[in-house]
Amino acid sequence: MDGAEITPEVLPLGQDGVLVRFARAVSPQASAAVARFAAEAEGLAEEVAPALASVLLRFDPGRRTRAEVVAGAEALLAAQDWGGLYDPPPRRLWRVPVALEGEPLAEAAELAGLTEAEARAELLAAELRVRAIGFAPGMPYLGYLPEHWNIPRQRDLTPKVPAGALVVAVRQLVLFPTDTVTGWRMVGRCAFRPFRREAEAPFVLSPGDALRFEAVTAGEVEALEGEPLGGAICEGAA
């Protein structure tokens, strides 16, 4: 089977989960199916958690059975063809200042077959979607970049990239909320933090949000570190 082929499967996961998997590989088509299913699955379970190519339905066994959740998921899947879908319009568009520079950017550009200037222009021109949030609290996976950005990992780990690091991984940009180790290349840095521990809503971004990066200098990023959203602006519904 082609890993990118859209072939929905309903699978058990643990004591209180049902996984609806659309493909065995990440692709824009799989993520579009995930976004549509997650939007329409409201009420099927206590938690509907979209990932890159699947949706987790987490249910309360005291309120409903696994068989009921599976039946609801299967009925939803049978209602339409899940291949060839497009992303629904975003509810929110974020504009996030970023400084794109440094040796890893030049290395990533070369692996993508671009000059550094071309790479910077492509990253700034892309309107990306929040495809999933995970690995660390609030950490967004933003996709998708053109196919030539499907570049390999570094041979060695970078012991620490700072909070606000923007790394490129498998046609996606990932924005780190905290200092962390990574095997992917850091291509930029933001003052925006996608996780605010003390806020009423700690996760700033939501799956399906659109996001554009806007160029600033490293010095301007430093100056924005004290701003609540690091200079980011949100357009659309709160």
Number of helical regions: 5
Coarse morphology: globular
Sequence stretches where pLDDT stays below 50 over 5 or more residues = none
Instruction: Give the strand tally.
Output: 14
Q: Spatial order of the strands in the main sheet? A: 5-12-9-10-7-6-13
Alpha-beta content class: alpha+beta
The string of secondary-structure elements, in order, is EEHEEHEHHEEEEEEEEHE
Helix percentage range: 10-25%
Please provide a written account of the structure.
There is one protein chain. With 238 residues, the protein is α+β, with helices and mostly antiparallel strands. It is 22% helix and 29% strand. It has five helices and 14 strands. It has helices at 28-40, 66-78, 103-111, 116-125, 218-224, and strands at residues 9-13, 17-21, 47-50, 54-58, 92-100, 128-133, 140-143, 158-161, 165-169, 172-175, 180-182, 185-189, 210-215, 233-236. Strands 5-12-9-10-7-6-13 form a seven-stranded mixed barrel, surrounded by four helices. A hairpin with a 2-residue loop joins strand 9 (165-169) and strand 10 (172-175). Helix 3 (103-111) crosses helix 4 (116-125). It starts with 8 loop residues before the first strand and ends with a strand. The mean pLDDT is 93.
